[in-house]
Amino acid sequence: MISTTNILKDTLEGKRLEEEEALFLLEEGDFLELGKAAAYICNSLHPQGVATFIIDRNINYTNICNCRCLFCAFFREGDDPEAYVLKEEDIYKKVEEAVEKGATQIMLQGGLNPQLGLDYFTRLFRGIKKGFPVTIHSLSPPEICHIARVSGISLEEALGELKKAGLDSLPGGGAEILEDEIREKISPFKIKTNQWLQVMEAAHGMGMTSTATMMIGSEEKLIHRIKHMSRIRKLQDKGGGFRAFIMWSFQPGNTEMGGKHIGPLDYLKTLAVARLFLDNISHLQGSWVTQGKEIGQLSLAFGANDLGSIMIEENVIKSTGVSYRMTEEDICHLIKKAGKLPAQRDTTYRIIKEYYPSN
Q1: Helical H runs in 240-292?
Q2: What is the residue extent of each domain of the chain?
Q3: Residue 248 is inside which H or E element, if any?
Q4: pLDDT for the residue 66
Q5: Average predicted confidence (pLDDT) for the chain
Q6: Phi and psi dihedrals of 348, rounded to 5?
Q7: Which one, of 27, 26, 43, lies nearest residue 274 by Cα?
Q8: Has this prediction a pTM greater than 0.85?
Q9: Would you state the CATH architecture of domain 29-354?
């Protein structure tokens, strides 16, 4: 007879969790049992008891976007009075400010602006690399596909030129739910599931690593979450290019889709199942940015070993009316109170600063 206890026993003994078992855990699994099992796996992968974070800046170079996703409150049409494209000198200034605050990574993400092609980004990346000692973790798969399309080149050519100009790593944005049935409902003009996976596989093949993401709480059912994780796991089996899995919750404020926020129990339970299912991805990030500081802290007891960035700048989630802020001191305090040892990392999860009790 299938049961949470039996599934978890097999999983903790090293048996790979199957899709139907993961779905059962999401539907029927005991909340605390799942948390305990996920924490066990996390501690096995990271026995030092360290929980990490990064200092970076998320710079949204434009909010003009022809994708018009129903869950997005950030985008604007090109003729909207609030539409913008940041000047290059303004971007360099933001990078400079971030470096002065200890940032080691810059994330450039924006709308799919038909006026911005390959030349814009290669020039920008070369300028950043010339002036600042930072990792460029930028451009989600939809942006890569868009750049290739408007520039009239192949996906592989676009990635190769961007890498040559300084692109180090790809964020997992634009994944939402990797099921076209759901994508048709929430982002009908965005790239499809196979295109997102194709970009990531091509990047991994060029030696660029990336993150994988999942947005929960829009139109998907629990089975769609499992299918999403399964596609990520299968691609990771092929190339091993995902450094981390990052799950965040849909924020309905000011969006065309509207709806309700998912509760913390749903978020934490799905996070725990992700830790059990994604046995080939080392790092799991908790989302205090969408769930708040307290749930972000609890995520460290449900399989997460990282809390992402202190977010020097964040505009996309903020546009929905949700705005949580965190300082370096705040995040260290949060981690310590969760019984973990705080440490600042870089993009590759190399520890660059420790904040252990003696400090």
Answers
A1: 264-277, 288-291
A2: 29-354
A3: strand 242-249
A4: 79
A5: 90
A6: -90, 10
A7: 26
A8: yes
A9: Alpha-Beta Barrel (3.20)
